Amino acid sequence: MTTMTETSARFREFKMPDVGEGLTEAEILKWFVQPGDTVTDGQVVCEVETAKAAVELPIPFDGVVHELRFPEGTTVDVGEVIIAVDVAPGSGDAPAAAEPVREPVAPAAVPEAEPEAPKGRQPVLVGYGVAETSTRRRARKGAEIPGPAAAAIQAEMNGHGAKAPESRPLAKPPVRKLAKDLGIDLAAVVPTGEGGVITREDVHAAAAPAPAEAPVRAEEAPAVPGPAAAVPAAGRETRIPVKGVRKAIAQAMVGSAFTAPHVTEFVTVDVTRTMKLVAELKEDKDMAGVRVNPLLIIAKALLVAIRRNPGINAAWDEANQEIVQKHYVNLGIAAATPRGLIVPNIKDAHDKALPQLAEALGELVSTAREGRTSPAAMAGGTVTITNVGVFGVDTGTPILNPGESAILAVGAIKLQPWVHKGKVKPRQVTTLALSFDHRLVDGELGSKVLADVAAILEQPKRLITWG
After folding, report:
1. CA distances in angstroms from 262 to 176, 258, 342, 465, listed in the order given
2. 410 near 389, Cβ under 8 Å?
3. How do strand 406-410 and strand 383-387 relate by DSSP bridges?
């Protein structure tokens, strides 16, 4: 099945594709075009969020946008038409397009008629066949009804002064994030945008401290210490819907924690020589243009340890009751993003020399921070590193990434008193924690891997002698 259909020689429709691996739906985060805009083949028209990542969707043909079928914030099933394009503008009269989906309007006070369930086979996942079912979108609470219906509801409200029922405040995703970062409850913000939409200025105004000449009365004072603006006026709790990437992470972690028997081992190691090596590599012309940091050496150390102890690079196949030994390493790097923790991986990391590994690591991290990680980049990982040290944390007991057998947590590198050559000296020290699946990794194998990583970080020359 393709992601576009041809309604006539003039109009073509673009369907929500399966942008992941067997995903059934995606939420439209943002439209980059509106009805009347000209689009070209390959131009990104919207951003959607699946259970794995946020993905930009390009249009596969040229033309003029005729209609956007769903507003921002709507969860759409794979296979549903999301945009119609006039591929032959000016060739004749065309049916009126829906109203531009620019801002959400009032909540749908009028019940939306459910479309009649079509009979027969309906497409589900692009490239995954069909199913005997009906396809219907799920709109977010408070989302508008696109097209003339939304305009009619808005006009009726404006003309008759009808009061909208209480619902989720109207705001764009960036504004919601700003409010979350500032600790502002959107329900307490007075909107000034068109159609009752909360703007960035509204959020900043709500975050501003109250004027000194207007003190808060005792009965209106917040129940907890802190600025009045930081306490939601509508209550002391804020409920955040769990969906998209965050929902998928939660489900995966629960499944991993209660399926694989976790064992975690720890070791504290003197990494002073590793830190000196990092400093030297930063000045090396062969490493010019790539980012060199301790994580690079730790990643290389883990790859060498896996080569020496290949049994750690495996997976448990519950259905077939088999241990699947991997002869390649797709090295996962846990990355914190605005949408939650994701674990993209470096494909075939075991084959990469240090400069190539540094380049791949830098690209992986920057892509994740920009929110551009694709679902394919997060699939197929074999072993993961999570660097909790960047938050000043000494160590942790990491949960396995589903389908993997081991994860290495790296703690903060700190200057500490350490016995070196028989004397107590200040040395750069860190703590490593290795969690592994005890069904296929016993204590001996896990201990050997962790000890090898620690030995390399203590004496980085082992990267050469062991590698």
Report:
1. 37, 9, 20, 32
2. yes
3. parallel
Q: What angle do CA 152, 158, 164 make, to 5 degrees?
A: 85
Task: Measure the CA dihedral 211/217/220/225, to 10°.
Answer: 70
Which helix (H) or strand (E) is 434 found in, with range? strand 423-437
**Chain centre to alpha carbon of residue 439:** 30
pLDDT tens figures, 315-331: 988 888 899 999 999 99
Return d(Cα 190, Cα 177) in angstroms, integer. 17
pLDDT per position as a tens digit, 239-288: 877 776 667 667 776 777 767 788 999 999 999 999 999 999 999 999 99
Helix extents (H) in 44-147: none
User: DSSP for 6-49?
Assistant: ESSSSEEEEEPP--SSS--EEEEEEES--TT-EE-TT-EEEEEE
Q: Which of 160, 327, 350, 438 is catalytic?
A: 438
> Distance between CA 431 and CA 267 in Å, rounded?
6
pTM: 0.56
Pairwise pLDDT comparison (114 vs 411), residue with the higher score: 411
350 is catalytic: no
